[in-house]
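Standup notes
- DV: blocked on the single-chain target, sequence here:
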Amino acid sequence: MSWKTFLENASPAEHAVQVYTELDELAVSVGTFLHAGFRTGEPAIVIVTPGHWEAFRAELERHGSNVGELEARGLLTRRDADEILAGFMDGDVPSAERFEETVGGLVDGVADRVPERTIRAFGEMVDLLQQRGRQNAAIALEGLWNRLLASRNCALLCAYQLDVFDFETQMSVLPEIVRTHTHPRPVADPPHLAAAVHEALTEVVGSDAAAWIYLKVAETVPRTALPRAQAVLTWLSRHEPSTAQRVLQGARVRYART
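- DV (later): unblocked, structure below
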């Protein structure tokens, strides 16, 4: 399934993630995701930071959504990400029981108001944890979300503000983020990433070695919704870290070109 298909036709239990650097990149995805649901009467839950909500609101209004009317009709439920997060954290880790009470209760309340419709949820709580250096807690929270999605008529979009051209990101947090989502999107423009990675890889190792690396990735990395260029970066970071760092540096420069 393509990213566009998920945003417009998200199904229950699907769990997508947008990795972004600029807020406007994320706002486009969030606005498209929510507005597509509103067009067909699907309700939405937005668990968001106040600073980001205005960008999402503007994008929804650009699509033609009347935010005030949606809230009045109970189709749009908005909550503060920090407040919801505080409701289920137990020290440095999320409590499964409190998460079920807090977030599960929120989802159930919307389902009661708008029955037999897929709820579209967007949340920034995992990103808050990641930005605060609590990577393990963020991934644990992803697991709790996946458990909730398996038992509710709900699809989820979440987001992380990360630098995918950073070697440590490729080695640590990004593989776990990919593992816990059905639809990972590591950059706003995957075709541009593919071109940037290909050019950098060919420059660093030569065309013959690049072809061999593509073959190894095809043999060892299952084809999923993950863009193939990101699969190449993941493989390189794990198996040829020195090469990966040089490719990442070159790809960063090329991806930044307009």
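- Follow-up: Residues 33 and 242 are 38 Å apart (CA to CA).
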